[in-house]
Structures are given as C-alpha cells and as structure tokens.
Design goal:
The structure is a single chain. By secondary structure, the protein is α/β, with parallel strands linked by helices. It is elongated, with a radius of gyration of 31 Å. It folds into 2 domains: 197 residues, MutS, DNA mismatch repair protein, Chain A, domain 3, CATH 1.10.1420; 186 residues, P-loop containing nucleotide triphosphate hydrolases (Rossmann fold). 54% of the residues lie in helices and 11% in strands. The strands form 4 sheets. The protein has a 6-stranded mixed sheet, sandwiched between helices. Strands 3-7-4-5 form a 4-stranded mixed sheet, with helices on one face.
C-alpha cells in the first residue's frame, strides 16, 4: 500500500516544482569542494547573486535524491568545454519522460538516497580523512594483549587481572575514538547504500552507457563492504536495537579496541578509492539530473534546445522563467553589442537577467526558455547588483570599479565572454560616469565579446552608436496612469517621462514647474556644448 502511494506521488509530482526546503549550505557542498579547473567556466558567486541563482535553482530542481540535487547544483555552476554528451542525454531524457514505469522504478531507487546523511557522502572523496596518531601502534598492542590474555585464561587464571587492567586502559582509548567515529557514522553507511543502488541502476543497458566502466568502480568499493558494514550496524544500533544488546556489544568493542582499528583501516582503504567513489556518485547524480530536466520541461509551456554558435546570439520569444506571465522578447546579436535605455521598472534589468540565465541553462542543462535560442559558448560575468561592502570599508563605486576591472582583464582573452551590466558607474557624477562608461563599454565590446548593458544616460547612445545596437523599453503615460508593456524596441529612448510621473503622483505644482524649467535649460547647455566641443567617437 505504501509503495502504491509513493508511485502515485511520483507520478503527480512529475512536471511540478518541489515544495521542499532548500539547505544551500549543504546543497553546494559538493560544488564548493570540487576542482572544476578543467571546465570552460565556473559561474562566480557575484554573477549568481546578480542573476538570482538560488531562486532559479529552486525552480529548476526536480531531483529525487540528495546526490542528484548536489550534482545538479554543480552542473548549473559549471559550463563544460563541449556538448558531446547531449545527444545521448537527450535520448535518455525522452525515454525517462515517455516510459512512466521505467522512470518511476528509477525514482523509487533514488528516493532511498534522501536522508540528510547523504549530504556527507561527498566528504569521503573530497575531504581529508582522519589520520591515526603516531602512537596508534599502542592500540594494536593493547588489542593483541586483550586477545592473548583471554586465550591464556584457561591455562593461567591470573591472566584475568591482566585482561581487566588492559580493559580499563582500553576504555580511555575507546571513548577517545568516539569523536572520530561520529564523523563517519552518517557518510559510510550511506556510501554502502549508494553503491548498492548504483549497481541496481547499472544493470539497465541505457544507464550503463553513461559510464561503461562503472562496474569496476562498484566492485572496488565492494572490496571494503564487509568492514564498512560495521558502521551501518553501529548507526542502526544507536536507534533501533535495545539498550541491553547495545551494551554487550559496546563491552566487546572496548575489550578489543575494535572501533579505532576498524575506523582507521576503512579510512585508509577509502583514501585510495576516492576516484571510484566519485564515479559512482556522479553516475547516480547524472541519472537523477536527467529525470529532473525531463520534469522541468514537462511543466513548461515552451522551451527549446540551444544551437551553439560562437559568433551570434539569437533569441526568439525568450522569457524569464521566474516571472509569472512573462512578456517574451526577441533579439539578434552578431557584430555589435547591445545598449538598452529606458526608465525604472520598464524591464531593462529583467531582460538582461533573462539573457544571462538562458545562457547558463542552455550551456549546462541544454534547455532554454525561448521558442528558439542560438548562443555562443561564452564565459559569463555581471555587474548588476552592487552594494556597499561596509565590513571591508568599500563604497558602492569602489566595489563596482573592482568588478568591472575584472571584466576588462577577462575581455582580452581568446575566449568569448558575455558581460551583463546595469547602470554602469551610477555611483559617481554625471560627466565622469558618461566618460568612463563610454571608455569601458568600448573596451568590453572588442574581440569576441558580447555586452548587454542598460543605462539612463541617453548621451551614451550617441557615443556608442558605432559599437552597440540601440534598444529601449518604454512606458505609456495616460492621464493619471503609467503602464509598461515590457516589450523590447529598436532604437534609443526618445521620450522622457520622469517629471510627468512626478506630476501624476501629485507632486506640488510649483516643484513640477521648476523641474521642467531646469530640464529645458540643461538640454540647451548640453546641445550648445555638443556643437562647440564635439566628442570624438
């Protein structure tokens, strides 16, 4: 009956977001400790913050196991060097989506890896293990003495006193080791379970193609299975067995110092099997990810598989998956980068984020939120959400300077880069902001780079018209109402409605008149300055 309910639950949940809580400190554990130096690009914490990555992950994550969840997080933060596995993966995603029984049976296996201790498995192949102290030979001597005195007891009853004396000494060493043992009581039993589930899944020929040599890794871990089974028994005894039986077993372990001998013996063997453990871990995680991608797509009205083209970005009816009833937009970028003008709340920043997150999902899970999407394999950098770093005594402007400096350094490498910027240098005065902004944006747009930048500074549209395609978002002001259509339009913004919006919100009449007058004078000054001192583009 319980299994039947689980099956119905898994069927109903396919295509829907999770309702679980998200422990990102544990979810990102595998990613943080993994060396991804051989990947094309690792998405930085700064870019993740700018693109609301945690909210995006909570929407994308439809995994069944904790291992799948950790592997999905790592996958979304790491852009690979190629897409060679996509055809094979797409075939499996289709099978898992269409063959309900196959998918459900797989998920029932994966659900067994859903206890909180599963988060700790990655530590067995990513973190340093406890090393035995230099005096550990004493424990071996004491264990041997206990065994010898017990064997000689029928011959010499006085050996009982030696046995009891050693037992008292062993008591101290036994409880000294409890802290070491506790660290592995969760992870090692879960590794045994993982290995068993991987073995079950690997019997399926379609899964076997993910890693044809996985059987060797499973067998290698099985070589330590008997010793590791002690940890599973220990973990079970603490919660399932009665106190009397546990007490007798504890006395036995103290007498012969079994715990420290078994613990450090197992850790020594596991230390030489890190690569095999990670292969098994990633095999199970990848299967869960493929089911998750299928579930994600099932719940979308439309999505597309990206076409990789390093010379252009083409988005047709692209949308932001976290915005309800999001208005779609289309754009094509090839020879020039993109400069977007528009008022606050008109959609500029959301569109820039839309491009960024579609690049991430397209290059990592082969899924774009668009009718069609052509994207380059590019590294992604952003300067969107910047704030004062009071703990390190850094102002908003200085923080932005450091962020953009990193972009400039990366812009001259031989790889494509996608730079996403919102209101560049808005922490400084107008003249220097426009001057520095123009110079920076010209630099970033060189080589094979793509830049998407928003600005309120209309002057930048004239200064950058040779290097950037101009687009804008606009609002419609009617009587006492302001409406946004959130549609991307070609060309620069021509209408200014900021003062009009103040008027709609019933600012004092004399204040509005003064603002209009100053605005006209400033326009005259700027026009005169442009005629007398033309700026060299």
């Amino acid at each position: 009956m319980r299994k039947k309910k689980n099956i119905e639950r898994l069927k109903e949940s396919f295509g829907r977001p999770k309702s679980d809580g998200f422990r990102f400190d544990l979810i990102e554990k595998y990613f943080k400790n993994k060396k991804n130096a051989d990947s094309f690009h690792v998405i930085s914490n700064k870019t993740c913050n700018d693109l609301d990555f945690e909210e995006l992950f909570m929407f994308l994550d439809r995994t069944t196991s904790i291992i799948g969840q950790q592997c999905l997080y790592n996958k979304l933060r790491t852009i690979p060097n190629d897409n060679n596995d996509h055809d094979k993966n797409e075939k499996l995603i289709k099978t898992l989506t269409d063959d309900i029984d196959f998918r459900i049976n797989t998920q029932l296996q994966l659900e067994k890896l859903n206890k909180s201790d599963v988060y700790l498995i990655s530590s067995l192949f990513q973190e340093e293990h406890k090393k035995p102290p230099g005096w550990f030979f004493i424990i071996r001597i004491l264990s041997f003495t206990s065994i010898l005195s017990l064997l000689m007891l029928p011959v010499n009853p006085k050996m009982l006193f030696i046995f009891l004396g050693v037992f008292v000494i062993n008591l101290g060493f036994h409880y000294w080791n409890k802290r070491n043992l506790h660290k592995y009581l969760g992870s090692i039993p879960q590794l045994l379970r993982l290995n068993k589930i991987a073995n079950n899944l690997n019997r399926n020929q379609q899964f076997k193609e993910l890693n044809p040599d996985l059987a060797n890794s499973i067998q290698t871990i099985n070589q330590v299975r008997r010793r590791m089974s002690f940890f599973r028994l220990e973990a079970g005894l603490q919660s399932d067995f009665d106190v009397l039986f546990w007490g007798i077993l504890e006395l036995f372990k103290i007498a012969f110092l079994l715990e420290p001998l078994l613990l450090f013996g197992v850790l020594r063997q596991l230390d030489s099997k890190r690569e095999e453990i990670e292969k098994v871990y990633c095999f199970v995680g990848e299967i869960d990810i493929l089911i998750s991608i299928g579930s994600l797509r099932k719940g979308l009205e439309h999505f597309s598989l990206p076409v990789i083209n390093d010379s252009k970005i083409i988005a047709v009816n692209v949308y932001h998956p976290l915005i309800a009833d999001c208005i779609t937009n289309s754009i094509e970028v090839s020879k020039k980068s993109i400069l977007i003008t528009g008022s606050n709340m008109s959609g500029k920043t959301s569109f820039i984020r839309t491009i960024g997150l579609n690049m991430i999902t397209g290059l990592t899970i082969n899924t774009c939120f668009a009718e069609s999407m052509t994207i380059p394999r590019a590294r992604i950098y952003s300067a969107i959400r910047i704030s004062d770093d009071l703990m390190n005594d850094k102002s908003y402007y200085f923080e932005e300077v450091l962020t953009i400096k990193e972009m400039i350094e990366e812009s001259s490498n031989d790889k494509s880069n996608l730079f996403l910027l919102d209101e560049i240098f808005k922490g400084t005065n107008t003249i220097e902001r426009i001057s520095a902004g123009k110079a920076v944006l010209s630099t970033l747009a060189r080589n094979k780079n793509f830049v998407f930048v928003s600005t309120h500074d209309i002057e930048l549209t004239d200064l950058l018209s040779d290097e950037y395609e101009l687009y804008h978002f606009s609002e419609i002001v009617k009587e006492n109402n302001v409406a946004f259509d959130f549609k991307l339009k070609e060309g620069k913004l021509k209408n200014r409605n900021a003062i009009r919006i103040l008027e709609i919100n019933e600012y004092p009449k004399e204040l509005i008149e003064e603002a209009v007058g100053i605005s006209k004078k400033l326009d005259e000054i700027v026009a005169t300055h442009a005629l007398v001192y033309p700026i060299n583009k």
